[in-house]
Amino acid sequence: MQVTETQADGLSREFKITVAAKDIDEKIEHRLMELGSQVKVPGFRPGKVPLTVLKQRFGSSVMGEVLENAVRDSSNQAMMERGLRPAMQPKIEITSFDPGTDLEYTMALEVLPEIEFMDFAGLELERLKVSVPDEEVDNALQEITKSQRKTEPLAEPRKAESGDVLVIDFRGTVDGEEQPGMAAEGHHLELGSNQFVGTFEDQLIGADKGEQRQVTVTFPEAYVNDKLAGREAVFEVTVQDILASVPVPIDDDLAKRMGLESLDALKGNVRTQIEKEYQQVSRGRMKRQLLDKLADGHGFEVPAGMVDAEFEVIWRQVEEDRGRGELDPEDEGKSEDKLKEEYREIAERRVRLGLLLSEVGRKNAIEVSQEEVNQALLREAQRHPGKEREVFEFFQKSPEALANLRAPLFEDKVVDYIVELASVSERELTPDALRAEMEAEVKSDSKKAGEGDDKAEG
After folding, report:
1. Which of 81, 98, 192, 289 is deepest in the core (most CB within 10 A)?
2. What would the pLDDT profile of 442-458 be if each residue is shown by its tens digit?
């Protein structure tokens, strides 16, 4: 094999590679002899088929197989001998080959950049600590009682109010035609729960038991059913019964229904859950802060092909959002060229952060264990009750999906590693103050790139 470097420009490399005809012929003959010991050819015993017969029968297919293997093996060898790490799949173009002659081809690729890390110990980060007030715990307990409350018939006849549960029969039509899923009998509907589209529930407030009402609603333009999106529907509704919601006392009995020993235990459980939620918010904020500092502190060249691929993903999403009328308000009035310029900068930032985190993980032997992947897979399956087996089978059959599940785990472990090296201060604040700060940050930083977009693991 002869390798000649024909171009070296930044991260771009191009090579001319020649594989000798003698090597190709030897590989073809070796493969044909292998086939001769395996296949049955009429008139010959296995292993006794002449090479000329094997060439006639299998020469073309073996030639293609050998050429493919020769290109793969020689290109991998060329990169390995030169210590090259390709950023993406190399582009191969065969420039010359005929049976009995040398195989010549070109290989063009972009290599991963050499990255010099900033001093992570010099990073200054802030971790927010939120103290959960008793009032927030009480509000959470009130929400729990809503899910536990029961209903009972009205003690005295009255009109329907928000919070009541109506037992209704309904039949809906669009332009006079019935549509699937728009009719039911004995349906229990809580007024004010926003279970039904538009102002459906509002129009039943004030109804009497046994009353028939006509309810008119307009489906949203972005409704999940395209046939109903933006269209007006008329429902004939009969109120069969009005049930009052019975408040559930916040006491030890409520806690026991939740599987806990006492009200104090329930309050402690609720407080812990709220604290975890705030910790996640705080971690997300510190992670964004860290990524901003990492992006500002590293300016290494990134492979153009990776930026192009990332930009295509972003721009496709932008066009889909535009088609649904969901263009980012900050993008309003900007020319397409200006938008593409801005989103390409975002793509470059994402690629740079992904490469940086990947290299930090590689050089510090940071890995995601199979147990961690299994736990993530279990959490994903639990998000789809009743379809757990289908979720497991999907990931078993899709290496790409499994890689997408593993990538954020890897990224978080790398982020944790850097945070351990950084100088982290802590600041306490109230939930209201946290929400105010987060809203301000979102407004001022709404278009910054995300957490590497699950691309950190190489």
Report:
1. 289
2. 766 554 444 444 445 44
